[in-house]
Amino acid sequence: MKTQFYILLSLKTPKGFVNYGQYFIGNNGEAAEGLFKQLKGTSPVDQAMLHVDLMEMVDELPVKIKTIGCTLDELCENTKLITREIFRLQNLKEIN
User: Fold this and answer.
1) Cβ contacts of 27-33, under 8 Å, gap ≥ 24
2) pLDDT of residue 7
3) What is the rounded end-to-end Cα distance, in angstroms, of the chain?
4) Which of 17, 21, 55, 94 is surrounded by the fewest CB atoms within 10 Å?
5) Cα distance between residue 60 and residue 38, in whole Å
């Protein structure tokens, strides 16, 4: 089974964190790590209301690799960057 990577978005509520979105990155760990390193945000994430997690599926179980906390403005920029990178990766797949 291939390892899969995705980015998980969550926000803080009075009852804890709630996941509200995810982006499938693909099977390339280097590409997923490279994309995550470009994202804006801070670590540690103690006071952050918005979290962005790099996740890996191992034997159908999610494993959190890294987490950053970000502001709403940073999340907007990150969403744009993630979408652009997924578009690039998918189109490179089609060319090869």
Assistant:
1) 27/2, 27/3, 28/89, 29/3, 29/5, 29/56, 31/5, 31/85, 31/89, 32/5, 32/7, 32/56, 33/65
2) 98
3) 22
4) 94
5) 27
Domain boundaries, the chain: 4-95
What is the torsion angle, in degrees rounded to the nearest 10, for the CA atoms of residue 85, residue 88, residue 89 and residue 92? -170
Contact 88, 37 (CB under 8 A): no
